[in-house]
Amino acid sequence: MFNQLGVIGCGLMGGSFALALKRAGLVKRVIGYSKSPSTTERARQLGVIDQAAESALLAVSGSDVVLIAVPVSATESTFKAIRHLVEPGVLFMDVGSTKRDVVDAARRVLKERVPSFVPAHPIAGKEVAGITHADATLYSGRQVILTPLPQTTPELVQKATDCWAAIGAQVLRMTPENHDAAFAAVSHLPHMLAFAYFNSVARQPAGRDFLSLAGPGFRDFTRIAASDPTVWRDILMSNREEILKQSQRFRHTLDAMEHVIKTGNAEALEDLIRKASEARAGWQMGSGKPGSNR
Questions:
Q1: What is the 3-state secondary structure of 208-249?
Q2: Are 117 and 149 in contact (CB under 8 A)?
Q3: How do residues 53-102 score in pLDDT, each as one tens digit?
Q4: Which of 30, 66, 167, 183 could form a disulfide with 20 if both were Cys (CB 3.0 to 4.6 A apart)?
Q5: Distance (Å, rounded) from C-alpha 176 to C-alpha 179?
């Protein structure tokens, strides 16, 4: 049980975390801060937070757990705003989709206070953003990746693990480097491809006509292209090194498929399709490998 949760960034992720802790009876009081006072006021009206803070620092004051739910590009400035109240024993977490840049910012700004910070990435979200879409069940049944630093206080890592598990999440641990490499492959590149592909269709002279004929396959394939532009701009830029590595791998695979089509090699094309189809059929979300029931 926490006495007070401080939420910095009262949007979908921060608001959902607050609601989840409230529903689970894990927090007595929630205080929230957002750059926009109207957002914070809306969060209070919806019962997501109990009190609005006038600054990020005031959201930290008196809190024994703090969630930083801001765009990854704003993480460093947030650390600078709160560092004087980053005290031992208080659990600080973020929800950023990239981790190496967040960890580097924590080291630069928090310095000797960095042991209080447990970097976290919940694998959850919606195509819609904002406090009005906050959902107490958002993290239930989802994975949360923790990427603690070597100097992170072990007791706080365990407290973070217990906190996420108590609201229904499956908690895993990785290094920041492995995290960013993995999510460049399975999250960041797919978003980039969805944005590029939808643009390539919509911007054709007959794009509007083509879109009018699109069915469920197109809908499902392009669903993530409706994601928040600002959030994904920051993610793609902050993890660009790993994303570009994955983009090159994808480009080679696409080139191979184009080559067999150009040369009329139907047998080779079918083989490439079959390999993907069989692997996808055996894959389960959250499993360690295709066909795993872990």
A1: HHHHHCCCHHHHHHHHHHHCCHHHHHHHHHHCHHHHHHHHHH
A2: yes
A3: 999 999 999 999 999 999 999 999 999 999 999 999 999 999 999 999 99
A4: 167
A5: 5
